[in-house]
Amino acid sequence: VQLQASGGGLVQSGGSLRLSCATSGFSLNRFPVAWFRQAPGKEREGVSCISSSDGSTYYRESVKGRFTVSKDTAARTVYLQMNNLKPEDTAVYYCNAVVWWGQGTQVTVSS
């Protein structure tokens, strides 16, 4: 099983980024995939999740209305569209499926 996150970068406040999590070794129809983030000096926190079955989604309160998680099962990829980014969204973002983690991708939002 592998997960590889990409798409991070440096953007100004109010900007957008789309993160991708390319997966292999399991089906997105069998396991949910979640996005987590970890800012310097802080604990890792859950950001969003998309279910395996019906595609239902979850968002932490601080990103509701700004972030959208989606998946392309055929492409084995999960996306996190992040709009209206704020400096407090600055963190390393990770994708996760059950016990498997991808490497992080850095998102930096300047004020």
What does this structure look like?
With 111 residues, the chain is mainly beta. The strands form two sheets. Strands 2, 4, 5, 6, 9, 10 and 11 form a seven-stranded mixed beta sheet that branches. A hairpin with a 6-residue loop joins strand 4 and strand 5. The protein starts with a strand and ends with a strand.
- Rounded Rg: 13 Å
User: How would the global form be characterised?
Assistant: globular
Low-confidence stretches: none
Distance between the termini: 37 Å
β-strand amount: over 45%
Count of DSSP strands: 11
Average pLDDT taken over every residue = 97
- Order of secondary-structure elements: EEEEEEEEEEE
Which structural class fits the helix and strand makeup?
A: mainly beta
Secondary structure: helix percent: under 10%
Number of helices: 0
Query: How would you sum up the major sheet?
Result: 7 strands, mixed
Secondary-structure blueprint:
Elements lengths: L1 E5 L2 E4 L4 E8 L8 E6 L6 E6 L6 E3 L7 E6 L4 E6 L8 E7 L2 E2 L3 E6 L1
Parallel strand pairs: 2-11
Antiparallel strand pairs: 1-3, 3-8, 4-5, 4-9, 5-6, 7-8, 9-10, 9-11
Question: What does this entry show, briefly?
Answer:
It is built from no helices and eleven strands.
Looking at this protein, list some descriptive labels.
111 residues, mainly beta, 7-stranded mixed beta sheet
